[in-house]
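Re: weekly structure request thread

Next one in the queue (266 aa):
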Amino acid sequence: MRRAGWWILCWLLVTPAMAQFDWSGYREYQHETGLLRFDAERPEALGQLLVWPEQQQVHHWLSMAGWWQRQGWDMVLLLPDGQQQHFDPSAEQVNEEQQQWLMTLTQRLAPSFEHPHDTPQLVLTQGSATLWYQQLVQTGALPAPDGLIVLDALPVTHARQRMLAMSLARSAWPVLDVFTKQHPAALLNQELRRKSSSRHPGDYHAAFLHTPRHPERLITAWMIRHGWMPQPPGAPDFLKGGEQNETGISRSQNTGTGGQAAPAGL
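Done, posted below.
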């Protein structure tokens, strides 16, 4: 299985025609929903992480699946399609084609939320997926997550920037907003979200990483803070505090639903 996984990863890295790949040979592939499900390496999972990536970024999250399994978490990976970048989530008039796409998308995602209610359901969205996911939750098409991780969601148009900033700030669930880019559009998005979050009492945190390749350490620290993952054995004293450290994570006064605080990075 490991050898087959490496072949698939290599194929994804060298061809742009990802959508044409036959996923049926992949053991974790669920044909009805177009999802890849990786079960935790323990009898009962600590929780589930649903990853909705950007186009052409599936290979990055495939390479991380084994890490989450070893941490005791189920990981579900949505195979995105080009429509999420083609349609406009901020459109006031939604045509029939976009409505049908949203219905199909909801049907694909809904089964992944059918998990034991005593374990946390976290969602990670990348890029253009973030606005679509927030829209599906806020319209009631999908249930709310226990927590949301956002990676490089950087809309270009002002309407989408304001829409996402308000949506994240008003979320009733904890949000970890991760940036790895510092170009003008990224800086503008950060500023709009900072202003929006300052006007709402939600559990919103923003952090900067120099590379998107290994966000799991930052995410793990955030999960420990909310009580979704146990502290590692022999954890240093700084893991018990909530002070800002070198990753530059910003903190709200609301400590969320979890237990003790932890720093932004491990």
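The first strand starts at residue 29 and ends at 30. Strands lie at 29-30, 35-38, 47-52, 73-78, 121-126, 147-151, 175-179, 204-208.
Next request, please.
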